Each structure stands twice: as structure tokens, then as C-alpha cells.
Amino acid sequence: MKFKNTLVLGALTSTLLFGNSLEQKVAELESKIEALTEQSAFGAGESKLSFNGYAKVDYVNYLDRRGEDFSDDYRLILAPKYKFSDTVSFISEIEFEHAGSTVEVEQSYIEWKVQDNLSLNIGKQIVPMGYVNLYHEPTVFNGVNRPETEKNIVPSTWYENAILVKGNYDKLKFQAGILPSLDATEGSSVRDWRGKGNKAKAEDIAVVARVDYTFTPEFQAGFSYFMGDIGQNAVGLEDAKISMLNIYATYQIEDLKVKAFYAQNDIDGITGLSETKPDGYYIDASYKIDDFVPFVRYEEYQVETKADSRTLTTLGLNYFINPNVVLKADYIFYEKSDGEDDDRFSMGVGMMF
């Protein structure tokens, strides 16, 4: 009898011990699963990896037949970001243009927060020039396409390998740094001279600086400046250099928003271009009515000489079916210095996620 009792007691003890061990293992497993979920890029908890992007699709109808009508899956941007720590992050943007026929890495840099309001960025990033050049998501700017002044004079979108210091002190924001300069051996316009970080020539190093200031909640203004030699040690371009100045301001009172922008490039040391100062400006006014934003934009610019100047008046409407999704339509009265018109009607959809 004593032997049987011992067996029963041993069995019960083993069962209890095994049960406690099993419960403990289940609890540990649940804890590990929760930890993995929090670390997952798609989990509900804090994530080191985040992911966003934007896209736009356009249709353009040339009314004066200076070009062929087209529809275009213009841009799809995928922007993965990884947070190594509270002070060090990796930021990138991969751009698919024209239905994927062109693929480029727009941004790929390390952001190091030296202080809460000061960071050092190293790698391929947006050059801090222009206005739409920095804020170019389709839900941010008016119209199906960006202002041509910024596209051809700034030139947007402009990205390059660079070392930039960024600061944000109350009402003042600034950026400053160095980068490979433009390359005047590639084409005849500033837009052609962008290296885009693709084995960009770095015989000449340029400097860039930008200052933005919020005077009141309604009024912000700023300027950006770029300067550097652009010959890249090419024969005949030893004295080639450029200075670029952008000035911009925005004013918003209730639902009315007005934006003004001016850009000028001063080119020296290049035969045929040394006496030209490509410049341009635009004024953009919009008014928000619920989810509708009608706007008008007037711009003038010249790429090389006054004989190549353009004047554009754009009337358009943005309709936000969601804060991050917009339907767009506009009509551009497009006048060229040769006296011929190039009017066009455009429609598009843009989104951010």
C-alpha cells in the first residue's frame, strides 16, 4: 500500500511539474511572438523599418499639335526607411518613371541627428534648391505637372551625393553643405548638367545653402543659393562656373494661398552661354472650397536667351477624394517667343501613402 501511494504521489508530482513547465514554455513562446510582432515592419508596435511613397498618372492633350497626345504612368516612388537608433536612420527613395522604363535611386543617405534640432546627412539626397524641388509630391503642388520654371531653371528634380547640415530652430530652418558640382560637358542647359549621383564627376565641388523663415503662421519666405565651377577639368571649360539664386514666399489666409517663386542662374566661362542668365518666375494662387482647390498660375522663364522665352498661364482644379488622393485637371495657355502657341489640356491622378 505504501508503494502504491508513493507511485501515485510521484505521478501527481510529475504531472504538476510538467504542467507548470508547459505553461511556462507557452508563456515564453507568447512573449517571443509579441516581441517579434513589435519588431516587424508591418506590425502594430514600434518598427525600425517604415515604408511610404507616392505616384502619379497623367494624360496630356496638345491642342495646337506641337506634340503628340499621350497618357503616362509618370511616377511611382517607393521610399523605405530604416531607423538604426534614435539618432541614426537610413532614408531612401526609388523612382520608377514612365511605367518602369526608367528606374533611378533618388535618395539613399544616412541621417545622423547630432542634436534634437540639428542633423548631418551623408549620401544621395535632394539638393536644397527651389520650392517644388523639395516639396514635389503630387498632393502638394497645384496642377497635373510641376511649374516649368522649376523644372528648367532650378532644375527639378535635382538630387546628388552630398554632405548636408540641416537645422531647425523655432521659426528658422536652414541647410548647407557640399556636393559634386554640375557638369557643363553634358549638354547645353542646367537640366542636362545634373550628375544624379551616378558616377557624377567630382573634379569640381560646389557649395549650397538654404534658409527658410516663418515670419507669421500665414507668411513664410526663404532663399537658396548654389555656387561652383562646372568645367570638371574639361579642356576649354577651365573658367566655367555658375551661381544660382532662388527666392520664394508663401502667404495663406484662411482658404486662400498664394505662392511666389523666382530663380536666376548666372553662367560664366562658356562660349555662347557666358552672357546668358537663365531665369524665371511664377505666381500661384489657389482657394480651397471643401475638397475642391481651384487655382491659377502665371509663369515666365527663359532657358538660354530671351529668344527662347516661354509664358504660361495655367487654370486648373484639384479635387481631393481623400486627403492623400487627388484628381487634377488644368488648361495651359502656352506662348513661345517664336509667336506660336502650344496650348494643352491635362488630367491626372496623384497619391501619397
TrEMBL record:
<dbReference type="InterPro" id="IPR033900">
    <property type="entry name" value="Gram_neg_porin_domain"/>
</dbReference>
<protein>
    <recommendedName>
        <fullName>Porin domain-containing protein</fullName>
    </recommendedName>
</protein>
<dbReference type="GO" id="GO:0015288">
    <property type="term" value="F:porin activity"/>
</dbReference>
<dbReference type="Pfam" id="PF13609">
    <property type="entry name" value="Porin_4"/>
</dbReference>
<dbReference type="InterPro" id="IPR023614">
    <property type="entry name" value="Porin_dom_sf"/>
</dbReference>
<feature type="domain" description="Porin">
    <location>
        <begin position="46"/>
        <end position="338"/>
    </location>
</feature>
<dbReference type="GO" id="GO:0016020">
    <property type="term" value="C:membrane"/>
</dbReference>
